[in-house]
Every structure is written in structure tokens, then in C-alpha cells.
Amino acid sequence: MKHTSFPKIGQFRQTVMDVKHMSAYTGKDELGNAIYDFTLPKPTLTFKGTVKLHGTNSGVGYNKADGLWAQSRGNIITPENDNYGFAKFVEDNKESFLELHEHIRFVHPELKDGDDVIIFGEWAGGSIQKGVAISGIEKSLFIFDVKVKPENGEDAYHLPPYYLNDNDNNIYNIEDYLSYNIDIDFEAPEKSQNKLAEITEAVEQLCPVGKAFGVEGIGEGVVWTGEYKGKRLWFKVKGDKHSVTKNKTLAKVDTEKLANIDEFVEYAVTEARLEQGLAEIFPDGQLVTPKIGAFLKWMMSDIIAEESDTMEDNGLTPKDVGRYVSDKAKKYFFKKYNDLTS
Predict the structure, then answer these.
(1) What domain range includes position 283?
(2) Which terminus of the chain is less hemmed in, N or C, by CB atoms within 10 Å?
(3) pLDDT tens, 149-160?
């Protein structure tokens, strides 16, 4: 019996970075170094959002040799050394949790007796946290994940938890409550920020889970889950009242400005300007990756010198357009570079 932690759920920007690198990855070279092609298109992925509850992360593990155990985020716990009464709750509902684990193994007969299977959920309600709607309900477990740690030492993996609950014993499933769906285009992920922020604000103003129990009040935020190339992707968006720092809230974007940026980049970052930049930085025609920074800097400097009036007319600044200019120029560079080196 060993404690198995639940992975930290990151921010939207971290998922954007993960997808950027996953979509560009093409393999390894002869030295084992990763090879990336940033000219490859990025995907549009569907994410499901479930309400993030303000409680404490908890788990109920099982394998045939050790039987059932309870754990907090960082430790295996017992009724004598408990965490907000969760171990006592597991002991009092032992038969229910054993039935849930039996059901997991029925649905997934490939599981071995020695595999650690952990049902993860948020132990919430009562006095666990203050100032949220679900503080007004009894302490309950809201299941949101199942993690398997194979006995043979292979990498741990996750199973869908949507079929697990025992509502009569305050063991619920977060997927049984209001959920959300969004398609995120990772070529322009910032265009999804407004919808993500609007959903988060609605949850914060009126928690859907609390409302389902007849208690009105604020919620914490939303956890978004998707998948790409066989890997689960997670990110969370909290409301202002629950953000540890301001940068953990998802800022809304000016959609009109984004449209202006798209039009400006299409107008200014032309093939002719890109070719001129390559000729300036690589006069011998030999493209080398260590000098890509110099190429991107030249592009931005040339655009500022020649198009500052156009930017001003569109209410834009160099800071507004810099990343988008660099992205388009970088894709062009790597396409040329790959054509030359392939």
C-alpha cells in the first residue's frame, strides 16, 4: 500500500504550451534529442468542463493484497490520523467503496489483482471550506477521476469515472451535474478565452452543484479535460474570489482587437517581407536555427519602421502584434529550413 498522488491541474497557458510542443514533435534524432517542426498545424480539440469544488483532494485506493485505504492529497490517512473526517467516512462506507472498486474491475477486466486503483474526488461540504455554496450541504465525496498504478511498474494511467456513485451514501459523481463543452482552436487559443471566462463567472456567481442541492451561493471555477495523441489534458479556470494570484484568472480578450490583429498580420507579414528578412539575416542562404531570434527581431523592427501608422490607425501597438508576427515568421522559417535540410 503506497500513497498515489493526484496530478496537479495546471493553467490554460500550460495546456496551450503542451499542445504546441506535442503537435510539433516529429521524433528523435540519432542522439536521442527531440525534433520539432513548428510549421505543422495545431489541432482543434474538444474539452469538457466540470464544476471545480472548493474542498480537499481525497482518494480511496484498493488492491487485493492491501484491501481498502483512504488518502489525502499528501498522505495515507486513518480515522485516528484523519483529514476533515474523510478516513472515518471511508470506514463507515466501506461496503459502498468496495462495491465501487469491484465495479471498476468488472468494467475493466484487464486490471490485475496487484494494481493499485484509486478513486479520486473532492471531499467537500460542511466545515471543510467556508464561503461557498457547498458549505451548506453535508460532507460528501464528489468523484472526478480513477487512477491506476500497475503492479509491474509501468506508468500510471487514468480511467473514466462517469459510472461511479452511491448517492444514498453521499458519494456523488461530478459528471452528474451541469457540465460544459468547448472546441479550442490551438492555432489561436486566445479566441476561446472569453467563453472560458464567461462560464467561470457564471459558476462563481451561482454554483451549479450547490443549486442542485437547493443551496444558492458562489462556486470556485471549472476544470477542463480533453485528450490529444493519447494524453489527457487538464486545466482549471478559477473565479476572481478563489484565485491565489491575479494571473490565475483567465483574462477576457478584446475580440475586435483580435480581428484587427489578424488583419494586420495578414497585411504586414507578407512572403516578400519574410524573404527579405531571410536574405538580410542569412545572406549565404544557409538557414541555421541559432539565428532565428535575429530573424524575428528583424521582422518586427522592419514592420515597426514601415507600418507604425497602420498599426496606430487600427488601435494597435507593437506589443499587441509582436507575438502574432513572430508566430507567422517562425512557421515560415521552419518550413524553409525543413525544405533545405530534408
Answers:
(1) 255-341
(2) C
(3) 999 999 999 999
